[in-house]
Design brief:
This protein is α/β, with parallel strands linked by helices. The chain has 15 helices and 20 strands. The strands form 4 sheets. It has an 8-stranded parallel sheet. Strands 2-6-17-18-19-20 form a 6-stranded mixed sheet, sandwiched between helices.
């Protein structure tokens, strides 16, 4: 017998009523949009009007939010993360190391201790942290599926829905065991971290069928994300590309985070890492890559021609001394450039606004002070990241876009004396949003995540993380 739909609760009815109201976000200090000096009007979860200088809304509004204390930006979009790694922040076995010693130290600890219970806390903490940093949409690249954690992406979807964060659930995978691989392999994953290739492909189909929503304004979408070409099989790379094409979803993987990986591609496959992607059917505009630091000029040009996106992870790249992404050349060649916080054990936090500032600083170190501006860094975290995820409904304050907005106060001492409010967010180091709106609903109010007991979350997560220190 078909189950009758449940009647909406009073709280649900109230939320739906609020979403259909026309809300004028009135007179902000500044807005990261043209022609919106007096704010924006939101209705039904979308931006329906920009209110220009000396203007009023064209149609009646039911609610006015006084934004006189706020600078308003699009919600930030995080294109690469590893939620489970919040359990091993600043782990004594992994600090002060480059990527390979770092990951070799942590893999056995993750494999031994990550389970469904502590993963749920890790996901809950990560989505809450991201919201507080002004992030409204995130992609988590989850590739660890030890026994008991087969439904990790379901947990992520539940936790993101609970706080109202949009998610691209990136179904990662490992199918090459590092300790049994040949001498010419760089794979480091222990057996407990890997899965059978057919099991992976079957679960990719399951996750897509359950969560991949291609509609405008979707709260969940799915990407297929083998961890990295050096620790997954060519068969998995090729078959995920075919699945992504069949189901119209995105593809994601790590690529050339280190010079060692670039050299490995030539030694193992007799071709560049980008040519290897092409061999696997990945060279298309449905693909975005994490890090992408060590591309040569020919690879940059080829990626740009095919519209392959690049997620720049400035904070973790600096922590692990991996190098500096060629953001300006990649963007000029035609690649969308977005930002990611990366893993919370290589960052060691989940603050996307902090990554915006780091992208500006490291970009100027690579180029010069005039070539990378605060607006470039903000664009990468909004429009660029949205393009990487294939979201043309996000990333900008414009009519028809989703009402995903971050509100920043300039009340802290760090902002006193700032002349340009938009530049101040980046140059003076904004790191916590005062308010966040997702799909027209408040998800952070007065600096606090709606419906989250932060003190309890902090206590439970910290207690669970103690198990990860047992290796000491």
């Amino acid at each position: 017998m078909a189950r009758l739909p449940l009647a909406p609760s009073p709280a649900q009815r109230e939320r739906e009523t609020k979403r259909t109201d026309r809300i004028w976000i009135r007179d902000p200090i500044a807005v990261l949009a043209d022609g919106a000096e007096r704010g924006v009007v939101v209705e039904g979860g979308r931006i329906v009007e920009l209110v220009g200088k000396n203007a009023e809304p064209a149609h009646p509004v039911q609610t006015i939010f006084d934004a006189g204390r706020h600078v308003v930006t699009p919600g930030l979009v995080n294109t690469h993360h590893h939620f489970f790694q919040t359990m091993t922040r600043a782990h004594p076995k992994a600090i002060n190391k480059s990527l390979w010693p770092w990951i070799e130290a942590l893999y056995p600890i993750w494999t031994r201790h990550v389970n469904a219970d502590n993963f749920r806390l890790a996901a809950r903490l990560s989505v809450t942290e991201l919201l507080l940093s002004g992030c409204t949409c995130a992609s988590d690249h989850h590739y660890m599926f030890p026994t008991g954690l087969e439904h990790a992406l379901d947990i992520e979807a539940e936790e993101a829905a609970a706080v109202g964060l949009r998610m691209t659930l990136s179904r990662g995978a490992l199918d090459v065991v590092g300790d049994k691989a040949g001498d010419d392999s760089q794979a480091v994953a222990p057996g407990g971290a890997t899965q059978d290739t057919d099991v992976i492909l079957a679960d990719c189909e399951r996750v897509i069928s359950r969560y991949h929503d291609r509609s405008n304004g979707a709260m969940t979408r799915v990407a297929l994300a083998p961890c990295a070409p050096f620790d997954v099989s060519m068969r998995l790379m090729r078959e995920t590309a075919a699945l992504a094409d069949r189901h119209d979803c995105r593809l994601h993987t790590h690529l050339v985070e280190t010079k060692q990986e670039a050299d490995f591609a030539h030694a193992k496959h007799g071709m560049s890492a980008v040519d290897y992607l092409e061999e696997c059917g990945w060279l298309s505009n449905r693909t975005w890559l994490a890090h992408g630091i060590h591309f040569d000029n020919a690879e940059v040009a080829k990626l740009g021609r095919h519209g392959v996106g690049i997620c720049h992870c400035p904070t973790s790249n600096m922590v692990l001394a991996s190098g500096i992404c060629r953001t300006k050349e990649l963007e000029a060649a035609g690649s969308p450039v977005g930002l990611g916080v990366d893993g919370s054990a290589s960052n060691d936090n989940s603050n996307l606004m902090e990554a915006v500032r780091h992208a500006l600083m490291i970009g100027r170190l690579r180029y010069d002070a005039a070539s990378v501006t605060h607006r470039d860094a903000l664009r990468w975290a909004t429009e660029g990241s949205a393009r990487c995820l294939g979201r043309d409904d996000l990333g900008a304050i414009a009519i028809g876009k989703q009402a995903d907005l971050a509100f920043w106060s300039l009340d802290d001492l760090r902002f006193s004396g700032a002349g340009d409010p938009i530049a101040a967010l980046v140059l003076c180091g904004a790191h916590a949003a005062d308010r966040v709106m997702v799909k027209g609903e408040w998800r952070v109010e007065d600096g606090a995540p709606v419906g989250v007991d932060v003190a309890r979350l902090r206590h439970e997560h910290h207690q669970a993380s103690r198990a990860f220190l047992e290796a000491l």
